[in-house]
Amino acid sequence: MRMVDIIRKKRDRVTLTPEEIRFFVKGYSDGSVPDYHASALLMAIYLNGMSDEEMLSLTDEMLNSGEVLDWSDLDGIKVDKHSTGGVGDKCSLILAPIAAAVGVVVPMISGRGLGHTGGTLDKLESIPGFEVQLTAERFREVLASTGMVLAGQTAEVAPADKKLYALRDVTATVESIPLITSSILSKKLAEGIDGLVLDVKVGSGAFMKQHSDALALARTLVKVGQRAGKKVVALITNMDQPLGTHVGNTLEVIESAEVLKGQVTKGDLVELSFELAAHMIVLGGKAEDLDGARKLVDQSIQKGTALRKFQEVVAAQGGDPMALEDYSLLPTANKTEPIEASRRGVVQRIDAEEVGIAAMLLGAGRVTVDSKIDPGAGIVLHRKVGDAVEEGMSLATLYYNDAKSLAEARSRLSAAFEIGEEAPPSVKLIHKVLS
Predict the structure, then answer these.
(1) Which domains does the chain have, with CATH numbers?
(2) 183: annotated active-site residue
(3) Which of 22, 140, 187, 230 is catalytic?
Protein backbone atom coordinates (compact mmCIF):
# COMPACT_ATOMS: atom_id res chain seq x y z
CA MET A 1 0.00 0.00 0.00
CA ARG A 2 0.99 3.60 -0.48
CA MET A 3 -0.24 6.53 1.60
CA VAL A 4 -0.68 8.68 -1.51
CA ASP A 5 -3.26 6.21 -2.82
CA ILE A 6 -5.12 6.18 0.49
CA ILE A 7 -5.13 9.99 0.57
CA ARG A 8 -6.40 10.12 -3.02
CA LYS A 9 -9.26 7.73 -2.21
CA LYS A 10 -10.45 9.81 0.74
CA ARG A 11 -9.97 13.02 -1.26
CA ASP A 12 -12.30 11.56 -3.87
CA ARG A 13 -14.85 10.44 -1.26
CA VAL A 14 -14.13 6.74 -1.69
CA THR A 15 -14.57 4.56 1.41
CA LEU A 16 -11.32 3.31 2.92
CA THR A 17 -10.96 -0.38 3.74
CA PRO A 18 -10.09 -1.61 7.26
CA GLU A 19 -6.69 -2.68 5.87
CA GLU A 20 -5.97 0.81 4.56
CA ILE A 21 -6.94 2.40 7.87
CA ARG A 22 -4.75 -0.12 9.70
CA PHE A 23 -1.83 0.72 7.38
CA PHE A 24 -2.23 4.43 8.19
CA VAL A 25 -2.59 4.11 11.97
CA LYS A 26 0.20 1.56 12.35
CA GLY A 27 2.49 3.51 10.04
CA TYR A 28 1.93 6.84 11.76
CA SER A 29 2.43 5.22 15.17
CA ASP A 30 5.75 3.64 14.24
CA GLY A 31 7.00 6.65 12.25
CA SER A 32 6.96 5.09 8.79
CA VAL A 33 4.13 7.41 7.71
CA PRO A 34 5.41 11.02 7.81
CA ASP A 35 3.53 14.03 9.17
CA TYR A 36 2.86 15.45 5.72
CA HIS A 37 1.03 12.30 4.58
CA ALA A 38 -0.90 12.03 7.86
CA SER A 39 -1.83 15.74 7.69
CA ALA A 40 -3.18 15.34 4.16
CA LEU A 41 -5.33 12.36 5.16
CA LEU A 42 -6.66 14.14 8.26
CA MET A 43 -7.71 17.12 6.14
CA ALA A 44 -9.38 14.81 3.61
CA ILE A 45 -11.31 13.17 6.48
CA TYR A 46 -12.20 16.60 7.87
CA LEU A 47 -13.58 17.72 4.51
CA ASN A 48 -15.28 14.50 3.36
CA GLY A 49 -16.16 12.67 6.57
CA MET A 50 -16.17 8.91 7.17
CA SER A 51 -18.75 6.15 7.04
CA ASP A 52 -19.77 4.28 10.20
CA GLU A 53 -17.60 1.35 9.08
CA GLU A 54 -14.59 3.62 8.59
CA MET A 55 -15.06 5.24 12.01
CA LEU A 56 -15.37 1.85 13.66
CA SER A 57 -12.18 0.67 11.94
CA LEU A 58 -10.30 3.85 12.88
CA THR A 59 -11.47 3.58 16.51
CA ASP A 60 -10.49 -0.09 16.64
CA GLU A 61 -7.03 0.50 15.20
CA MET A 62 -6.32 3.41 17.55
CA LEU A 63 -7.65 1.37 20.47
CA ASN A 64 -5.36 -1.54 19.62
CA SER A 65 -2.30 0.66 19.01
CA GLY A 66 -1.47 0.15 22.68
CA GLU A 67 -2.53 -1.74 25.77
CA VAL A 68 -6.22 -2.60 26.27
CA LEU A 69 -6.86 -2.89 29.99
CA ASP A 70 -8.63 -6.05 31.14
CA TRP A 71 -10.66 -6.16 34.34
CA SER A 72 -12.53 -9.39 33.57
CA ASP A 73 -11.19 -10.94 36.78
CA LEU A 74 -12.89 -8.20 38.83
CA ASP A 75 -16.56 -8.72 39.62
CA GLY A 76 -19.07 -6.16 38.40
CA ILE A 77 -19.92 -4.19 35.28
CA LYS A 78 -17.35 -1.48 34.49
CA VAL A 79 -18.80 1.89 33.52
CA ASP A 80 -17.18 5.28 32.87
CA LYS A 81 -18.37 8.75 31.91
CA HIS A 82 -16.86 11.22 29.46
CA SER A 83 -17.60 14.91 29.04
CA THR A 84 -16.68 16.97 26.00
CA GLY A 85 -15.61 19.72 28.41
CA GLY A 86 -16.98 22.95 29.81
CA VAL A 87 -16.59 25.62 32.46
CA GLY A 88 -17.12 24.58 36.07
CA ASP A 89 -17.71 20.98 35.00
CA LYS A 90 -16.71 19.01 38.06
CA CYS A 91 -19.37 16.30 37.62
CA SER A 92 -16.80 13.47 37.58
CA LEU A 93 -15.80 14.24 41.17
CA ILE A 94 -19.43 13.77 42.22
CA LEU A 95 -20.86 11.05 39.99
CA ALA A 96 -17.93 8.61 40.17
CA PRO A 97 -18.10 8.25 43.99
CA ILE A 98 -21.90 7.99 43.83
CA ALA A 99 -21.84 5.22 41.21
CA ALA A 100 -19.04 3.37 43.00
CA ALA A 101 -20.84 3.65 46.35
CA VAL A 102 -23.83 1.90 44.76
CA GLY A 103 -21.61 -0.91 43.47
CA VAL A 104 -20.73 0.10 39.91
CA VAL A 105 -17.05 -0.45 39.05
CA VAL A 106 -15.65 2.87 37.78
CA PRO A 107 -12.20 2.80 36.08
CA MET A 108 -12.10 6.49 35.16
CA ILE A 109 -9.25 7.80 33.02
CA SER A 110 -9.43 11.59 32.80
CA GLY A 111 -7.52 14.44 31.20
CA ARG A 112 -6.09 17.85 31.93
CA GLY A 113 -7.56 21.21 31.05
CA LEU A 114 -6.35 23.46 28.26
CA GLY A 115 -7.58 26.98 27.66
CA HIS A 116 -10.90 27.95 29.21
CA THR A 117 -12.03 24.38 30.06
CA GLY A 118 -10.97 22.70 33.28
CA GLY A 119 -9.43 19.24 33.60
CA THR A 120 -10.42 16.58 36.14
CA LEU A 121 -6.79 15.67 36.82
CA ASP A 122 -5.91 19.28 37.68
CA LYS A 123 -8.79 19.45 40.15
CA LEU A 124 -7.76 16.17 41.80
CA GLU A 125 -4.14 17.31 42.12
CA SER A 126 -5.27 20.24 44.25
CA ILE A 127 -5.94 17.63 46.95
CA PRO A 128 -2.61 17.33 48.83
CA GLY A 129 -0.74 14.16 47.88
CA PHE A 130 -3.28 12.89 45.34
CA GLU A 131 -1.47 10.88 42.66
CA VAL A 132 -3.08 10.76 39.22
CA GLN A 133 -0.26 9.09 37.25
CA LEU A 134 -0.58 5.44 38.21
CA THR A 135 1.15 2.39 36.79
CA ALA A 136 -1.16 -0.26 35.34
CA GLU A 137 -0.44 -2.43 38.40
CA ARG A 138 -1.28 0.36 40.84
CA PHE A 139 -4.40 1.26 38.81
CA ARG A 140 -5.59 -2.33 39.22
CA GLU A 141 -4.85 -2.35 42.97
CA VAL A 142 -6.88 0.80 43.61
CA LEU A 143 -9.76 -0.38 41.43
CA ALA A 144 -9.84 -3.80 43.10
CA SER A 145 -9.76 -2.37 46.62
CA THR A 146 -12.17 0.56 46.22
CA GLY A 147 -14.24 -0.20 43.10
CA MET A 148 -13.15 3.10 41.59
CA VAL A 149 -10.05 4.88 40.35
CA LEU A 150 -9.42 8.41 39.04
CA ALA A 151 -6.24 8.57 36.99
CA GLY A 152 -4.54 9.93 33.89
CA GLN A 153 -3.90 8.18 30.59
CA THR A 154 -0.72 6.12 30.53
CA ALA A 155 1.66 6.04 27.58
CA GLU A 156 0.51 2.49 26.85
CA VAL A 157 -3.19 3.40 26.37
CA ALA A 158 -4.14 4.37 22.78
CA PRO A 159 -0.73 5.92 21.91
CA ALA A 160 -1.86 6.50 18.31
CA ASP A 161 -4.52 8.89 19.59
CA LYS A 162 -1.95 10.96 21.49
CA LYS A 163 0.17 11.36 18.39
CA LEU A 164 -2.75 12.03 16.03
CA TYR A 165 -4.37 14.52 18.40
CA ALA A 166 -1.18 16.58 18.53
CA LEU A 167 -1.14 16.65 14.72
CA ARG A 168 -4.86 17.55 14.51
CA ASP A 169 -4.21 20.46 16.86
CA VAL A 170 -1.78 22.08 14.41
CA THR A 171 -3.56 21.20 11.17
CA ALA A 172 -7.01 22.73 11.89
CA THR A 173 -8.71 19.32 11.92
CA VAL A 174 -9.73 19.12 15.60
CA GLU A 175 -13.43 19.77 14.87
CA SER A 176 -13.95 16.70 12.66
CA ILE A 177 -16.70 14.48 14.11
CA PRO A 178 -15.14 11.20 12.84
CA LEU A 179 -11.78 12.20 14.35
CA ILE A 180 -13.36 13.33 17.63
CA THR A 181 -15.34 10.08 17.83
CA SER A 182 -12.34 7.81 17.26
CA SER A 183 -10.25 9.86 19.70
CA ILE A 184 -12.78 9.71 22.54
CA LEU A 185 -13.83 6.09 22.06
CA SER A 186 -10.36 4.64 21.51
CA LYS A 187 -9.23 6.00 24.88
CA LYS A 188 -12.41 5.04 26.71
CA LEU A 189 -12.69 1.54 25.26
CA ALA A 190 -9.02 0.91 26.08
CA GLU A 191 -10.03 1.24 29.75
CA GLY A 192 -11.70 -2.15 29.52
CA ILE A 193 -15.18 -0.76 30.23
CA ASP A 194 -18.55 -2.38 29.50
CA GLY A 195 -20.59 0.82 29.45
CA LEU A 196 -20.08 4.53 28.82
CA VAL A 197 -22.16 7.61 29.65
CA LEU A 198 -21.36 10.62 27.45
CA ASP A 199 -22.02 14.23 28.41
CA VAL A 200 -21.94 16.20 25.14
CA LYS A 201 -21.91 19.91 25.96
CA VAL A 202 -23.42 22.62 23.76
CA GLY A 203 -23.32 26.39 24.19
CA SER A 204 -20.99 29.34 24.66
CA GLY A 205 -18.61 27.51 26.99
CA ALA A 206 -18.59 24.25 25.05
CA PHE A 207 -16.52 22.87 22.22
CA MET A 208 -19.72 22.50 20.19
CA LYS A 209 -21.48 25.87 19.98
CA GLN A 210 -24.46 24.73 17.86
CA HIS A 211 -27.10 22.19 18.89
CA SER A 212 -27.02 20.51 15.46
CA ASP A 213 -23.27 19.85 15.81
CA ALA A 214 -23.64 18.48 19.34
CA LEU A 215 -26.49 16.22 18.22
CA ALA A 216 -24.47 14.91 15.28
CA LEU A 217 -21.50 14.15 17.55
CA ALA A 218 -23.66 12.47 20.20
CA ARG A 219 -25.41 10.28 17.64
CA THR A 220 -22.10 9.23 16.11
CA LEU A 221 -20.51 8.43 19.47
CA VAL A 222 -23.46 6.30 20.54
CA LYS A 223 -23.67 4.47 17.21
CA VAL A 224 -19.96 3.67 16.95
CA GLY A 225 -19.69 2.81 20.66
CA GLN A 226 -22.60 0.38 20.43
CA ARG A 227 -21.21 -1.19 17.26
CA ALA A 228 -18.01 -1.77 19.24
CA GLY A 229 -20.10 -3.91 21.59
CA LYS A 230 -20.49 -1.45 24.46
CA LYS A 231 -23.53 -0.05 26.26
CA VAL A 232 -23.54 3.67 25.47
CA VAL A 233 -25.85 6.55 26.33
CA ALA A 234 -25.29 10.23 25.53
CA LEU A 235 -26.82 13.32 27.12
CA ILE A 236 -26.71 16.64 25.27
CA THR A 237 -26.43 19.27 28.01
CA ASN A 238 -26.39 23.04 28.25
CA MET A 239 -23.12 24.96 28.65
CA ASP A 240 -24.34 28.52 28.05
CA GLN A 241 -23.41 29.38 31.63
CA PRO A 242 -20.86 27.80 33.99
CA LEU A 243 -21.96 24.60 35.71
CA GLY A 244 -22.42 25.18 39.41
CA THR A 245 -20.99 28.24 41.12
CA HIS A 246 -17.27 27.49 41.52
CA VAL A 247 -14.69 27.67 38.72
CA GLY A 248 -11.09 26.74 39.51
CA ASN A 249 -9.40 23.65 40.88
CA THR A 250 -9.53 23.89 44.68
CA LEU A 251 -12.82 25.76 44.44
CA GLU A 252 -14.38 22.98 42.37
CA VAL A 253 -13.16 20.29 44.78
CA ILE A 254 -14.84 22.23 47.60
CA GLU A 255 -18.13 22.55 45.72
CA SER A 256 -18.04 18.83 44.84
CA ALA A 257 -17.46 17.90 48.47
CA GLU A 258 -20.38 20.10 49.53
CA VAL A 259 -22.65 18.28 47.07
CA LEU A 260 -21.50 14.88 48.37
CA LYS A 261 -22.14 16.06 51.95
CA GLY A 262 -25.68 17.03 51.02
CA GLN A 263 -25.02 20.69 51.73
CA VAL A 264 -25.81 21.68 48.13
CA THR A 265 -29.18 20.18 47.16
CA LYS A 266 -30.36 22.28 44.20
CA GLY A 267 -29.02 23.79 41.01
CA ASP A 268 -27.66 22.67 37.66
CA LEU A 269 -24.56 20.94 39.07
CA VAL A 270 -26.60 18.72 41.37
CA GLU A 271 -29.22 17.99 38.72
CA LEU A 272 -26.73 17.02 36.03
CA SER A 273 -24.30 15.08 38.25
CA PHE A 274 -27.10 13.04 39.79
CA GLU A 275 -28.71 12.30 36.41
CA LEU A 276 -25.41 11.20 34.86
CA ALA A 277 -24.77 9.01 37.91
CA ALA A 278 -28.24 7.47 37.53
CA HIS A 279 -27.48 6.52 33.92
CA MET A 280 -24.19 4.95 35.06
CA ILE A 281 -26.06 2.94 37.69
CA VAL A 282 -28.52 1.62 35.10
CA LEU A 283 -25.70 0.66 32.70
CA GLY A 284 -23.91 -0.94 35.65
CA GLY A 285 -26.89 -3.19 36.33
CA LYS A 286 -27.56 -1.85 39.83
CA ALA A 287 -31.04 -0.54 38.95
CA GLU A 288 -33.62 -1.62 36.38
CA ASP A 289 -34.58 1.93 35.39
CA LEU A 290 -33.71 5.56 35.98
CA ASP A 291 -36.30 6.05 38.72
CA GLY A 292 -34.76 3.24 40.73
CA ALA A 293 -31.27 4.57 40.02
CA ARG A 294 -32.23 8.08 41.18
CA LYS A 295 -33.37 6.65 44.52
CA LEU A 296 -29.99 4.96 44.93
CA VAL A 297 -28.25 8.26 44.13
CA ASP A 298 -30.26 10.05 46.83
CA GLN A 299 -29.52 7.30 49.35
CA SER A 300 -25.78 7.50 48.69
CA ILE A 301 -25.87 11.21 49.56
CA GLN A 302 -28.19 10.93 52.56
CA LYS A 303 -26.26 8.02 54.09
CA GLY A 304 -22.87 9.59 53.36
CA THR A 305 -21.63 6.55 51.43
CA ALA A 306 -20.68 8.59 48.35
CA LEU A 307 -18.56 11.02 50.37
CA ARG A 308 -16.86 8.15 52.18
CA LYS A 309 -16.16 6.44 48.86
CA PHE A 310 -14.49 9.59 47.55
CA GLN A 311 -12.38 9.83 50.71
CA GLU A 312 -11.48 6.15 50.39
CA VAL A 313 -10.23 6.66 46.84
CA VAL A 314 -8.34 9.84 47.80
CA ALA A 315 -6.52 7.87 50.52
CA ALA A 316 -5.84 4.94 48.17
CA GLN A 317 -4.22 7.31 45.65
CA GLY A 318 -1.99 8.98 48.22
CA GLY A 319 -4.14 12.02 49.02
CA ASP A 320 -5.32 13.44 52.32
CA PRO A 321 -9.00 12.45 52.79
CA MET A 322 -9.37 15.02 55.57
CA ALA A 323 -8.99 17.77 52.96
CA LEU A 324 -12.59 17.00 51.95
CA GLU A 325 -13.66 17.87 55.48
CA ASP A 326 -11.23 20.65 56.41
CA TYR A 327 -10.86 22.90 53.37
CA SER A 328 -8.00 24.82 54.98
CA LEU A 329 -5.83 21.82 54.03
CA LEU A 330 -6.36 22.67 50.34
CA PRO A 331 -4.22 25.25 48.50
CA THR A 332 -6.12 28.54 48.43
CA ALA A 333 -5.75 32.04 47.00
CA ASN A 334 -4.51 34.85 49.22
CA LYS A 335 -6.46 37.65 47.55
CA THR A 336 -10.04 38.22 46.45
CA GLU A 337 -11.86 40.90 44.52
CA PRO A 338 -15.63 41.27 43.98
CA ILE A 339 -17.49 42.00 40.76
CA GLU A 340 -20.60 44.09 41.40
CA ALA A 341 -23.75 44.71 39.38
CA SER A 342 -23.77 48.07 37.60
CA ARG A 343 -27.57 48.21 37.49
CA ARG A 344 -30.76 46.71 38.89
CA GLY A 345 -32.44 43.90 36.94
CA VAL A 346 -32.32 40.19 36.17
CA VAL A 347 -29.31 38.19 35.00
CA GLN A 348 -30.08 37.38 31.36
CA ARG A 349 -26.88 35.59 30.43
CA ILE A 350 -23.49 34.56 31.78
CA ASP A 351 -21.04 33.89 28.97
CA ALA A 352 -19.41 30.63 30.08
CA GLU A 353 -16.42 30.97 27.79
CA GLU A 354 -15.60 34.45 29.12
CA VAL A 355 -15.83 33.19 32.71
CA GLY A 356 -13.52 30.31 31.82
CA ILE A 357 -11.00 32.64 30.18
CA ALA A 358 -11.12 34.98 33.20
CA ALA A 359 -10.39 32.04 35.52
CA MET A 360 -7.56 30.91 33.24
CA LEU A 361 -6.01 34.39 33.34
CA LEU A 362 -6.05 34.26 37.13
CA GLY A 363 -4.03 31.02 36.96
CA ALA A 364 -6.77 28.36 37.15
CA GLY A 365 -6.16 27.10 33.60
CA ARG A 366 -3.47 26.67 30.98
CA VAL A 367 -2.64 29.08 28.19
CA THR A 368 -0.25 26.43 26.80
CA VAL A 369 0.17 22.72 27.55
CA ASP A 370 3.16 23.37 29.85
CA SER A 371 1.65 26.34 31.72
CA LYS A 372 1.77 26.01 35.50
CA ILE A 373 -1.62 26.01 37.25
CA ASP A 374 -2.39 27.89 40.46
CA PRO A 375 -4.79 25.48 42.21
CA GLY A 376 -6.21 28.18 44.48
CA ALA A 377 -7.12 30.63 41.72
CA GLY A 378 -10.60 30.87 40.28
CA ILE A 379 -14.03 32.45 40.46
CA VAL A 380 -17.13 31.98 42.60
CA LEU A 381 -20.43 33.07 41.08
CA HIS A 382 -22.99 34.53 43.50
CA ARG A 383 -25.72 34.94 40.89
CA LYS A 384 -26.84 32.70 38.03
CA VAL A 385 -29.09 33.25 35.01
CA GLY A 386 -32.59 34.26 36.13
CA ASP A 387 -31.50 35.74 39.47
CA ALA A 388 -32.65 39.26 40.37
CA VAL A 389 -29.93 41.75 41.32
CA GLU A 390 -29.71 45.26 42.76
CA GLU A 391 -27.13 47.86 41.76
CA GLY A 392 -23.91 47.26 43.70
CA MET A 393 -24.83 43.66 44.55
CA SER A 394 -21.99 41.13 44.29
CA LEU A 395 -22.20 39.03 41.13
CA ALA A 396 -18.99 37.07 41.59
CA THR A 397 -15.66 36.99 43.44
CA LEU A 398 -12.25 36.55 41.85
CA TYR A 399 -9.68 34.47 43.79
CA TYR A 400 -6.03 35.03 42.89
CA ASN A 401 -2.42 35.06 44.08
CA ASP A 402 -0.84 36.76 41.06
CA ALA A 403 -2.35 40.09 39.97
CA LYS A 404 -0.51 40.15 36.62
CA SER A 405 -3.67 39.54 34.58
CA LEU A 406 -6.20 40.67 37.16
CA ALA A 407 -7.39 43.72 35.19
CA GLU A 408 -8.17 41.68 32.08
CA ALA A 409 -9.80 38.90 34.11
CA ARG A 410 -11.96 41.44 35.94
CA SER A 411 -12.97 43.09 32.67
CA ARG A 412 -13.90 39.79 31.04
CA LEU A 413 -15.86 38.59 34.06
CA SER A 414 -17.81 41.86 34.28
CA ALA A 415 -18.64 41.66 30.57
CA ALA A 416 -19.74 38.02 30.92
CA PHE A 417 -22.81 39.10 32.93
CA GLU A 418 -25.72 40.50 30.92
CA ILE A 419 -28.43 42.15 33.03
CA GLY A 420 -31.85 43.14 31.66
CA GLU A 421 -35.33 44.11 32.79
CA GLU A 422 -37.30 40.92 32.22
CA ALA A 423 -36.65 37.37 33.35
CA PRO A 424 -35.02 35.38 30.52
CA PRO A 425 -36.77 32.33 29.04
CA SER A 426 -35.93 29.11 30.84
CA VAL A 427 -33.42 26.84 29.12
CA LYS A 428 -33.31 23.08 29.55
CA LEU A 429 -30.21 21.76 31.26
CA ILE A 430 -30.54 18.38 29.50
CA HIS A 431 -31.62 18.90 25.89
CA LYS A 432 -31.77 15.30 24.77
CA VAL A 433 -30.86 11.73 25.76
CA LEU A 434 -29.66 9.28 23.10
CA SER A 435 -29.32 5.57 23.75
Answers:
(1) 3-49 (1.20.970.10), 79-153+191-324 (3.40.1030.10), 331-420 (3.90.1170.30)
(2) yes
(3) 187
